[in-house]
Amino acid sequence: MSEPLVSISMIAYNQRAYIVEAMECALQQETEYPFELVIGDDCSADGTDEMVEDYQKRHPNIIRVIRSERNVGVTANEARNLAACRGKYVAFCDGDDFWHRRDKLQLQVAYLEAHPDCGLVCSDRNVHYVASGKTIRDFNVYRKRRPPENPTVADFARGVAGLDCGAIPACTVVLRKDLLDRVIAADPYLHGGKAFMMNDTQRWAEIAHLAKMHYFEESLATQNAPPQSVSRPPDWRRSVRFLISVAEMFLYLCEKYALPPEIRARHERNWCRYSFELAFLERDFALAGRVLGRGYQFSPKEWVKYCSMRNALTHGSLRRVLWFRQRLVSRFAPPNV
């Protein structure tokens, strides 16, 4: 293979239903330069690995597969996959997403080549809800948000145009690999994957701190939204833990970049709110005490929850009522990612 200008990083685990479409969309990219597709399969047990191996045999000059003898988890799988990427630029397309534009790479890489001060480009996307079969096109337009040109770390922490909650999904991103390597090496705690449950947002924020960022208005990719994922787990407690981790990550960024007190206060409130929710769900008095110790003021509803924790029967009954209510809200809530 000639040296690729772009590496497409695709991680996969038990994504038999999606992986072929993901690989095909990458192979069908129409570019003026060579690219490679680096697939990190994390010991899939549903046949995904066999499909990936078959495609690698059919396209040995484009596809490279990174394997291991045991499951290492999504963070370690992605880290080793990125380390194997050889291109000047890295594009992301996980095994359950796909690009619906054959000129996606050409458009985005051409912009980066013409603007050496730009470190990352991204775009709008379509969101396909697997359970219902519904697709929402131009999702950022639908959500009435547009990531700003050249955002700051503070913009990410403020949540400007949804920057803190998925306005820049990985499947739309192409970035300079040297910048990615630089931010990961400079702060392994933030980007190492052990401290926080999310990886993408802090990467985009720190790259935007070092270079410009450009947003394409067009929808260039489709993000599949399965019934459950890391950020949308089926278990209520796992959902809350994810939100706590997001708050902790932003609190870390607030300290690192000395962001204004009002931004820190926002994420401190989020940490306390979600931590108390977890304390209620698990009847964890120690965690509830930590929340109170940070000066958080309970709302009337939270006081009811706190008081219910003192009696197992009352606590169990209230949990069941709130769980049922949450199910109804989730069922009829507007789509979100």
Main attributes?
single chain, 337 residues, alpha/beta, eight-stranded mixed sheet, 47% helix, disordered C terminus
Detailed description of the structure:
The protein is α/β, with parallel strands linked by helices and 337 residues long. The protein is 47% helix and 16% strand. It has 14 helices and eight strands. The protein has helices at residues 19-27, 48-58, 74-84, 104-114, 139-142, 153-158, 177-186, 188-191, 200-210, 236-256, 261-282, 285-293, 300-308, 312-332, and strands at 6-12, 35-41, 63-66, 89-92, 118-129, 134-136, 174-176, 212-225. Strand 5 (118-129) and strand 6 (134-136) form a beta hairpin. It starts with 5 loop residues before the first strand and ends in a 5-residue tail after the last helix. Residues 332-337 have low confidence and may be disordered.
User: Which structural class is indicated by helix and strand composition?
Assistant: alpha/beta
First-residue to last-residue Cα separation: 38 Å
Q: How large a portion of the residues is in β-strands, by DSSP E?
A: 15-25%
Q: Shape from CA axes?
A: globular
Q: Please give the count of helices.
A: 14
- Main beta sheet: 8 strands, mixed
Radius of gyration: 21 Å
